[in-house]
Amino acid sequence: MDEFVVTPAWLSDRLEDPHSQSQPQIRIVDVREPWEFEGIGHVPGAVNIPFDRFRDEGDADRGMLPGSDVFAELVEEAGIEPDDTIVAYDDTHGVFAARFVVTALLYGHEDVRLLDGDYSAWNREYETTSDASEVEASSYEPEPLALEESPLIEREDVERAIDRGALLVDTREQFEFEEARLPGAVRFDWREVVDDETRGLKPRAEIEALLAERGITPDRELVLYCNTARRISHTYVVLRALGYEDVSFYEGSLTEWLAADGRVESGPVSSSNSDSDD
């Protein structure tokens, strides 16, 4: 799974032995708020790119991608080069960091990974610091994925996917799912793959079994959605790490769907399409 998700031990080994970091260089991105990064501490060498800076904060497209120019400015300030290996983390089981991972992938950064676990998990076993990281600004030219390569799909694409029998996966909580959901969707709360004790991902076999219970299997065409594309980012990274290939990312999610008066279902669902609250 380390093509998309890396363990704290993997990262620690590379921090302890810089000579093992022949190109590409490891760049660690902390997406927490600045007061957390500076006041609580961070992984040594990490740079701070807060979550709200890499998403659109406008009223029309709140929570959407920030735009390639904004992304380029952020990573240039952080000293990130196009060939660097990026490892992102947060302190919320990886859900905010996963949004950075997906954002970087969509803007063409080839090697970007999610730290398995979060800052609290790292802090249990490894060194942290409050010292500012020395950064030399870089030059960065994003290369957004072409339409045929990108997992992003629009509302019209979702409607066509529904018509051809794709499986829609809702990554939200039970009460949200019952209030309104896309037609035929199954619920798979993004937190189901997280171990509350370790704060990292559950074992691969356990995750695969949980997915299979909902019919979320590698042979299916999958369309992920939530409200504003944060929670589906985590599920998307996990599915890609497991080798799932036919996974679409509906960034507009339910917010856009409702604004366009799209068809929805609501109310309780049968036991085959529900689960206990996390």
UniProtKB/TrEMBL annotation:
Q: What does the UniProt keyword field contain?
A: Repeat
Name the domain of life.
Archaea
Q: What is this protein called?
A: Sulfurtransferase
Domain named Rhodanese is located at 22-131, 162-266
Q: Quick check: keyword Repeat in the entry?
A: yes
Q: Which InterPro entries match?
A: Rhodanese-like_dom, Rhodanese-like_dom_sf, Thiosulfate_sulfurtransferase
Stored SUPFAM superfamilies: Rhodanese/Cell cycle control phosphatase
